[in-house]
Amino acid sequence: MMILLYGLVGYVCGSIPTGVLVGRMHGIDPRSSGSKNIGASNVTRLMGRTAGLITLCVDVLKGLVPTVLILSSVSDHSAYVCGVMAVLGHCFPVWLKFSGGKGVATAFGVVAAVLPVVAIVSAAVWFTFLFFTRTPAIGSVVTAGLFIVLPQMDERPLEIHLFTLTIAVMILLRHTRNMRVLKGRYIKDSSKK
Q1: What's residue 84's pLDDT?
Q2: What is the SS3 string spanning 49-73?
Q3: For the segment 84-136, what is each residue's pLDDT rounded down to a tens digit?
Q4: pTM
Q5: Is residue 125, in this structure, part of any structural domain at all?
Q6: Rg (the chain; Cα; Å)
Q7: What is the DSSP letter of 98?
Q8: What is the pLDDT, as a whole number, of residue 153?
Q9: How many angstroms separate the Cα of 43 from the Cα of each of 91, 136, 160?
Q10: C-alpha neighbours within 13 Å on the C-beta side of residue 192
Q11: Cβ neighbours for 86, distance < 8 A, ≥ 6 positions apart
Q12: Residue 163 is inside which H or E element, if any?
């Protein structure tokens, strides 16, 4: 019963619609402009780097803070449930009729609480892909793969692998449309050569 309560705490924290709240301060709803996503990438495009950075930091903290607090005061299992639910809350927030973001920033926060080295390596890879491709979705998909692969390089409990696998699957599912667009763009570019 308590684990369910911690999961609810994670979901509520994760479901805070940061991008929408930041957008209201600028008179812009990110759900109706750009990529129509509430995440930091779209907020940056629409409102500038400062707004995007605020959105990114708060979205990371939505996953990091509750997971760290529960990890340090209760149990690992409760923290894993809280973290997964925080990502779920970001992707499907009750306040926005269950239509939220892609979950990447919140997932970074959650993974940083449990596996900081994995989070640091994944963040470095994400920023590298962003720098060279200018396409956040590519880095996000690669990062989801790293969440699965990197813990395999060390002897970790099964619960850790299920934890990272669940988060990675959520990210990949939320990027299905992006992957279709990227695939179409690649096919189109290839046909021009």
Answers
A1: 97
A2: HHHHHHHHHHHHHHHHHHHHHHHHH
A3: 999 999 999 999 999 999 999 999 999 999 999 999 999 999 999 999 988 88
A4: 0.91
A5: yes
A6: 17
A7: T
A8: 85
A9: 16, 13, 32
A10: 6
A11: 10, 11, 13, 14, 62, 63, 66, 67, 106, 109, 110
A12: helix 158-174
Q: Amino acid identity of 172?
A: L
Q: Which domain holds residue 73?
A: 2-187
Cα gap 10→152, rounded to integer Å: 25
Whether the CB-CB separation of 78 and 145 falls below 8 Å is answered with no
Q: Which residue has 């005061």 as its token pair?
A: 73
**Which residues, given as ranges, of the chain have pLDDT below 70?**
185-193
Residue 193 in any domain: the answer is no
Domain count, the chain: 1
Alpha carbon distance 167, 48 (integer Å): 28
**Is the residue at 192 inside a domain?**
no
